[in-house]
Design brief:
The complex is a heterodimer of chains A (277) and B (290). Chain A is an alpha/beta fold and 277 residues long. In chain A, 41% of the residues lie in helices and 21% in strands. Chain A has one domain: P-loop containing nucleotide triphosphate hydrolases (Rossmann fold, 3-Layer(aba) Sandwich), CATH 3.40.50.300. Chain A has helices at residues 44-51, 74-80, 97-107, 112-125, 141-154, 171-188, 199-203, 222-227, 229-234, 241-251, 263-275, and strands at residues 3-11, 21-29, 33-38, 59-64, 67-68, 81-84, 159-163, 191-195, 207-212, 215-220. In chain A, helix 3 packs across helix 4, helix 4 (112-125) crosses helix 5 and helix 5 (141-154) packs parallel to helix 6. Chain A starts with a strand and ends with a helix. With 290 residues, chain B is an alpha/beta fold. Helices cover 40% and strands 22% of the residues of chain B. Classes of the chains: A alpha/beta (277), B alpha/beta (290). Chains A and B meet through helix 6, helix 10 and helix 11 of A and helix 6, helix 10 and helix 11 of B.
């Protein structure tokens, strides 16, 4: 029962507008990291909003741990499904970091003693414990996103959705946040759903859903997905540098035994190739 | 237009408890027609520097010269209007600044304010949307009915309709998907050449700096940390890492290939396919020597 399930979900924003999602079905396990990729307009962000009841489908059903997402269940659902958005400035309500982290818990009626403890642990998890009394709007972009993640963690959800949560950060900030998130996921055994354009991020996921024109276009591990370069190109999606280089090496007569996901794997493959020559 | 900074410092709210020195003794020059990337970590002073380029900020000390215009501390800067006509700035998320009822009116807003006549505006508008690849049918639509990518192109068209000689781009691709990013950057690159602009790109993306710029200025804590052509700058991975900057992925890979496989690849800007050929040759070549 521990999973998010989309059952034949279709969604459109207005009755006379085109379907944004068409008969979409998939499941996401409660300790999985799933990356959702696709063009702008492919329906990825709509999926995120449907998962925690910011939107409701016209057709089909969304279940979180067996419970259908609908207006009278969303408060319960949102305890389990937390969301971090792209722009950190749009998600602050408190005047201090501490207040901000407390806000979500207050809404869920978490008792005071528990709140105090969770503020501490969730800020520690994102390495922002020294910033409790800071004003959120004076933090850097990366620090803001850390606080936003801490606020979500404090409610102790099972599923965390990151909707392009690193897109506005600089490359170093992006890497640091992803490392933090990965650590938290492993320690607390959470599910991560990342909606992203960052291919490096995608290579680290357990599974990838490729969306195109409102449909699940492909589904698989990152290695499978990126080995289908021609198909990805067809819908205008890029592959990582390492994938491209591996493909070109193939054209130059060097066949690798598997699709490399990062530099080290490609170099290992080349090492093996050379020693077998 | 030639751009030069001579010993420029800028301090926010001097003499108050919030005093913050954003730029310190910054000197560099950008010859007319160059494509320069300004790179730096968040808080390195990039945005402050950028705001000097069209006189939104005036140095606390030192001199900024842009073509014939000079910005100097404690000097009355009368020609700001002229300067702003010549220097077009595309700010971050420029689509947030759209406000008019129609795309055409929004694009016309800038030139109208500078007293350009209606006929000329019409001509420039058409030229601008051709450059940004927006269909003409959109001109009478509300900019708010468009997609995010189209809205950004409308905002950029508004800057182009000013016929600037210097184009300043502050993270122009932020928030776009990878293919959208490439389209926008290619568009600026084409414009740069066609119109012989001087282009200043403020970016986090080492990949873009490598692909488009002919000169890089790296800022750190308000000072010029490094400066030079991209391929030279990216030779110094250690020095870049000290200020938390990466090198482009291709260069990172070339370095790793040397350390792990002993393969020396000479990266001179070749394509992935060409690089793969070089690499394949070297991988095979290794055996011939044995």
């Amino acid at each position: 029962m521990s999973h998010i399930e989309f059952r034949n979900v279709s969604f459109r924003y207005q009755e006379d507008s085109p379907w944004v999602l068409k008969n979409v079905s998939f499941t996401i396990g409660s300790d999985e990291w799933v990356a959702i990729i696709g063009h702008n307009g492919s329906g990825k962000s709509t999926i995120a909003k449907l998962m925690n009841g910011l939107l409701f489908p016209q057709e089909g059903e969304i279940l979180v741990d067996g419970e259908t997402v609908k207006p009278d269940t969303i408060w319960n659902i949102r305890k389990r499904v937390g969301m971090v958005f792209q722009n950190p400035d749009n998600q602050f309500v408190g005047t201090t970091v501490k207040d901000d982290v407390a806000f979500g818990m207050e809404n869920h009626g978490v008792p005071r003693e528990v709140m105090i403890e969770r503020i501490q642990t969730s800020l520690e998890a994102v390495k922002m414990q020294d910033y409790e009394k800071h004003e959120p709007h004076r933090l850097s972009g990366g620090q803001k996103q850390r606080v936003a993640i801490a606020s979500v963690l404090a409610v102790s959800p099972q599923y965390i959705i990151l909707d392009e949560a690193t897109a506005m950060l600089d490359p170093k900030g992006r890497k640091q946040i992803m490392r933090t998130i990965r650590d938290v996921q492993e320690e607390q055994n959470l599910a991560l759903i990342t909606i992203t354009h960052d291919l490096q991020e995608v290579t680290e996921a357990n599974r990838v859903l490729v969306m195109n024109e409102g449909e699940v276009w492909m589904e698989g591990g990152p290695r499978d997905i990126f080995s289908k370069k021609d198909q990805l190109k067809e819908i205008g999606l890029d592959t990582p540098f390492v994938s491209q280089l591996a493909e070109q090496l193939g054209h130059a007569g060097i066949k690798l035994s598997r699709e490399p996901l990062h530099h080290e794997e490609l170099l290992e493959e080349l090492w093996t190739f050379r020693s077998n020559m | 237009m030639d751009i030069s900074f001579e010993h420029v410092s800028y301090t926010y709210q001097p003499g108050s408890p919030f005093e913050y020195r954003a730029l310190h003794d910054v000197s560099f020059s950008i010859p007319s027609g160059s494509f320069v990337a300004i790179i730096g970590h968040t808080g390195s002073g990039k945005s402050t520097l950028l705001q000097h380029l069209n006189g939104l900020l005036v140095p606390t000390s030192g001199t900024v010269t842009i073509g014939d215009y000079r910005l100097k501390a404690d000097e009355k800067n009368k020609q700001l209007r002229k300067l702003r006509e010549k220097v077009g700035v595309v700010f971050q998320y420029p689509e947030h600044q759209l406000f008019e009822e129609t795309v055409a009116k929004d694009i016309a807003f800038g030139p109208e304010n500078f007293g350009v006549d209606a006929k000329e505006i019409d001509k420039r508008t058409k030229e601008a949307i051709r450059a940004t690849k927006l269909p003409e049918e959109l001109l009478e639509r509300s900019p708010f009915d468009l997609s995010g990518g189209q809205m950004r192109r409308v905002a950029i068209s508004g800057v182009l309709a000013m016929n600037p000689e210097v184009l300043v781009l502050d993270e122009p691709t932020a928030g776009l998907d990878p293919s959208g990013q490439r389209e926008i950057m290619d568009m600026f690159y084409d414009l740069h050449h066609e119109k012989q602009l001087t282009t200043v790109l403020v970016t986090h993306s080492m990949e873009d700096a490598l692909a488009y710029a002919d000169h890089i200025i790296i800022l750190n804590e308000g000072e010029v940390y490094m400066e030079g052509p991209p391929l030279d700058i990216f030779q110094h991975q250690d020095k870049l890492e000290k200020v938390q900057l990466d090198v482009p992925e291709v260069i990172e890979f070339v370095t790793k290939a040397k350390h792990k496989l002993g393969i020396e690849l000479d990266y001179t800007g070749q394509s992935v396919a060409e690089l793969a050929k070089d690499l394949a040759q070297k991988v095979r070549g290794g055996r011939d020597h044995e």
